[in-house]
Amino acid sequence: MRVACLGGGPAGLYFAISMKLRDPSHEIVVIERNRPNDTFGWGVVLSDETLDNCQLNDPISAKSIREHFAYWDDIATHYRGEKIVSGGHGFCGIGRKKLLNLLQDRARELDVELRFESEFGSTDGFADYDLIVASDGLNSKVRSEHADVFKPDIDQRACKFIWLGTHQKFDDAFTFIFEETEHGWIWVHAYQFDDDTATFIVECAEDTWLNFGFDKMSQEETIAACEKIFAKYLDGHALMSNAKHLRGSAWLNFPRVLCEKWSHKNIVLMGDAAATAHFSIGSGTKLALESAIDLADRLHSNATMEEAFACYEDERRLEVLRLQSAARNSLEWFEEIDRYLDLAPTQFAYSLLTRSQRISHENLRLRDKDWLEGAEKWFEGRSTGQAPKDSRPPMFTPFRIRGLELENRIVVSPMAQYSAKDGTPDDWHFVHYTSRALGGAGLVYTEMTCVSPEGRITPGCTGLYDPEHEKAWRRIVDFVHAETPAKMAMQLGHSGPKGSTQLGWDEMDAPLPGENWEILGPSPVAWSDKNATPREMTRMDMDKVLDDFVSAAEMTERCGFDLLELHFAHGYLLSAFITPLTNRRSDEYGGSLENRLRFPLEVFRAVRAVWPDEKPISVRISANDWVGDEGVTPMEAVEIARVLKEEGVDIIDVSAGQTSKKAQPVYGRMFQTPFSDRIRNEAGIATMAVGNIYEPDHVNSILMAGRADLCCLARPHLTNPYWTLHAAAQLGYDRADWPKQYYAGRDQMQRLAARAEATVMKV
């Protein structure tokens, strides 16, 4: 094969090496515009996993790379005058120029032709080559030439950064430095990559960058300013730039690159030409080297180049998307750093460490048990106001709001059972709710309970508008209070445009097959083409609904519930007023957000007036309609939360979606937690996180990072009412409150969990 690698970075060089190792008869040339010793970065970071892959691919180059690595184990965070150090992270770095020189030497050994200071134009100039590898980096000429085929999606991110170096030593830790200045916050990512040189990346928001006047500075002036800002960390050492090839100050915005296709005819993209991952997770070189190995393998194991390209792209795209997801989480953390700057140093460092979601709570325990236990003690001390003797997982710390104290942070989400008869909960509901209370959760929610017969979602929905309802709910609440430490929450709602529909296990949100009752909405906008169009509510209708909520709230109090929640989410009546997707009114209840919130707030105020002062009220909202700017956006959700806080709402139950058939949600583990994070830390109100939270690790990570105050789990509690008690045993937490009747089962579960842990430790 005749192969042209256009670009002599790590991707092109290592692919040439990998191809030669598989078949020395390949005729390979690497064409690079720069000189052999030119480089415009400083150090690069590689993981042990990548090094192991390189060892299997080419032990000789892997050995030479390892010999020049700088290793460090700790991450140090300098923030608000404190230095927080967490260990066990296992990084290694190498100078980019040294890595290139080592790969160049290895390529020459294998008879790869290297052409430096060679510009290339169109790929048409390489028509006599069998394979053209576009490894020409971030600003790929090849990708631009064939943009109509590759269809690159290039997203210029918000923060400004400059890549510098220094002879100051950071050999004890990968170091983050956060400095507050008169112009705003500015921070550093620093790490050692050889005996006397470290990478020193300075980053800040664009507003801060403009406030400093960096946009008008030369590179020399920029360096002088950064040396002054970080003088106490540099200990007299200078900062250095090797970006003289760039005009101006050498500040950049990171471009996230992802291409729809990676190959065209005999051309294939590799490295940053195909996809980028933000430098804050250090995976760019990893992606380049591992992609080089994979493509070389595919070309030697498939019958045709087309098949090889298809397999290469299928395999590597999954890894790229995984890393880009982690990188997106990481870069967004830095872009949105203002929301975390009120966190205490311990929590700030924890949030930083877990920002990409690749490192979880228990993973941190494996890395540095002492540090994590210290952080857990801090979290518990903040929760209880007392200095704890021993640490416990955040999910098992108490939470207090008004006069309500929960034993732990686990909430059983509202889950419709569709089993009521004329709104009355029966024995099914008694077993359902009491078993989950016995299972250890701190707070157990009812399903959305409707304030009137016509406010039901389905004929099987529970209600609170009849004396029989009150009696049945009281029976459940009394049992929970008598036999468990759990508290009970009542969620009240009105179905609005989504009413008069079939049971959930028939056809969800579809109208009843027979006679339907009249449904109401803020505007005559049907939920779907199948559903009836709601009647636009009059002032008289609003007054009736408001009275129904007040009556249901009074019944809720007589039943003994500990917390009351109003349902402002998921397209039901009060949600339908809030979202512009279904609120098309032209009066004082439509149009602006202030107007759209008007009726829901009237309901809240009326309910708050009859609900005891010592008991909290929560509100569930849809923080994203998942339809872009046409509906409620996460930014608008923060404003909604601010208004609710000002009105006296105690905690926001942060959900999303289900307000429109047009919604395009992005699913994944903990996929709605970012909305809770944003609302909690920007609006300054307590939140509950919901949405695909299913492991104790998820819960502890969310709580410890300050992304929510409570965690709601739905489906896990459908399959396991005792999820919380099982989680306690799994985590080795022996202070969970088990029913005394189940002590024998508790003891066995704890013994088995301890035995399993001992086996893992032994292995």
TrEMBL record:
Residues 2-318 form the FAD-binding domain. CDD domains: OYE_YqiM_FMN. One of its GO terms (molecular function) is FMN binding. InterPro entries: Aldolase_TIM, FAD-bd, FAD/NAD-bd_sf, OxRdtase_FMN_N, YqjM-like. Residues 395-731 form the NADH:flavin oxidoreductase/NADH oxidase N-terminal domain. This is Bifunctional salicylyl-CoA 5-hydroxylase/oxidoreductase. It comes from Denitrobaculum tricleocarpae.
